[in-house]
Specification:
Length: 479
């Protein structure tokens, strides 16, 4: 075991400064004095104020700056051995307060009804909630951390809200960060070193975490250890320290781009589509927080314009509150809905391309295949739906004027990349089909477009798809 060495002068100075800092910082918000590096609860890396003092958890440490900005840590409370290798679990704090954005999202999906947990009050996702409740009950009985979890769904579907509800149901602290905000290992070190026992750590966009930071996070998920760098320069040393067992909850809209090294430690939960009734319930709850009452049948009518997205429900309520206040005094009745929607720009003034886009966004992969088949039939093709599953298969076979064409339909939010086209091209060649079409509800990467340039593959992205759809059928047929 390697111990930190300190000069006797530094120890004496540390004790002196400790007394001053304890007196100075008592009763104040200690974080206001912090200006430099993120602090860890063991005190090995600390935030420095202008006097070189650092505060870690309930302990105060003295650090000295040398000309090379190297940091030498003097423990003024515990011995060095205790400081480095104490495995005591910290006492649980009350759940952390949610951010403004999270609170705003929660208002639409949960309420504080006595006797019901936060998860039970979350609207929708019954399958996931049942599975989570079983895991939560087991974790509470055994008094251990919940298994790591990955929640995946399109944007604004309530992933963060559900993750926060898990923490509230468990009664444990919750910390939240975004993978894009972790460019260096030190950023993650500051978060991990402040983790409490059984705490929930929510990481949005884990697919954006850089390689070096991801390796540190993987170590924390698998071994519950965090690497601390002590000093810098030639004398720098890395210590791997134990940390409390916690629960990682990744929330992503691009599960395929999350590195397998993180995915393999998590239980995966993919959101199911919300029913129109569930979106209506979310609308009603959001409206209640804004002082607006919506009748149940009116909420169902309004929900049909939210495309199955809780985020759209929140926006719709805000627009009703702002733009339609004279029409919504009291309770919104179903008879008022057409006038409200007209005032908000829906109805006959709503662009046909957006109507089609909303329709496509509400489809799953199989629905999109059938919709695409109808689009090609209206262009004069004889269409056979193959029923092939998997990303590498041929979804449709078109026949027209003696020419056979293979089609793959991608109901994706992300860009379609070159590997997809390469596999599809191989499938068409194997099937003896001379031409291919890839239809996507998104677009294609530059490398994918370059791959298709000199090959008999036509790419139809969302812009061309909307143009074809809006001109090939009447509005009534489209909707």
């Amino acid at each position: 075991m390697e111990l930190l060495s300190f000069s006797s002068v530094s120890v004496i100075a540390a004790v002196a400064v400790l007394g001053f800092l304890v007196f100075k910082l008592t009763g104040e918000d200690k974080t206001r004095a912090l200006t430099d590096h993120r602090i860890d609860r063991t005190g090995l890396i600390g935030d420095l104020d202008q006097d070189g003092a650092a505060v870690a958890g309930d302990e105060t440490f003295c650090l000295s700056r040398e000309p090379a900005d190297s940091l030498r840590i003097t423990a003024a409370v515990r011995s060095t051995t205790e400081l480095l290798f104490d495995e005591q679990q910290p006492t649980l704090d009350p759940p952390a307060e949610a951010s403004t954005d999270t609170i705003r999202e929660q208002e639409g999906t949960t309420t504080q009804t006595p006797g019901l947990s936060a998860i039970e009050m979350f609207v929708g996702q019954e399958r996931i909630k049942a599975a989570l409740n079983s895991r939560i009950e087991r974790a509470q009985v055994q008094r251990e951390a919940l298994s790591h979890i990955m929640l995946t769904a399109p944007p604004e579907m309530g992933k963060v809200t559900l993750a926060t509800a898990i923490a509230n149901t468990l009664g444990v602290p919750v910390e939240m960060c975004n993978g894009r905000e972790l460019p260096a290992s030190l950023d993650l070190t500051g978060i991990l070193s402040n983790v409490h026992a059984r705490q929930i750590l929510i990481v949005e966009e884990p697919e954006s975490i850089p390689w070096r930071v991801r390796k540190m996070l993987e170590s924390a998920l698998s071994e519950f250890r965090v690497a601390i760098l002590v000093d810098i320069g030639p004398g720098a040393r890395t210590h791997s320290l134990p940390m409390p067992q916690f629960t990682f909850v990744g929330v992503t809209s691009r599960l395929s781009q999350v590195d397998p090294s993180l995915r393999r430690w998590c239980v995966m939960y993919e959101f199911d589509p919300y029913t129109n009734r569930e979106i209506g319930q979310i609308l009603t709850r959001v409206a209640e927080t804004e002082g607006i009452r919506i009748a149940e049948d009116a909420a169902l009518d309004l929900a049909s314009h939210c495309n199955g997205c809780p985020g759209n429900a929140w926006i719709l309520v805000q627009r009703i509150k702002r733009d339609s206040r004279p029409a919504v005094d009291g309770t919104i009745a179903v008879e008022q809905v057409p006038a409200i929607l007209s005032a908000l720009g829906f109805g006959e003034h709503y662009p046909r391309s957006l109507l089609l886009l909303d329709t496509l966004n509400a489809m799953d992969g199989r629905d999109f295949e059938h919709w695409s088949a109808g689009m090609f039939r209206r262009q004069g093709y004889v269409v056979n739906i193959t029923g092939t599953t998997g990303d590498h298969g041929i979804d449709l076979v078109l026949a027209k004027d003696g020419q056979t064409t293979a089609v793959q339909c991608k109901r994706w939010a992300d860009l379609v990349g070159e590997p997809v086209l390469r596999d599809f091209y191989g499938a068409t060649v194997s099937a003896g089909i001379a031409e291919g079409i890839v239809v996507a509800t998104s677009s294609f990467t530059p490398s994918a477009r370059e791959f298709a340039q000199n090959k008999p593959i036509r790419l139809i992205d969302i812009d061309e798809l909307l143009a074809i759809g809006c001109t090939s059928v009447s509005r009534s047929e489209e909707i």
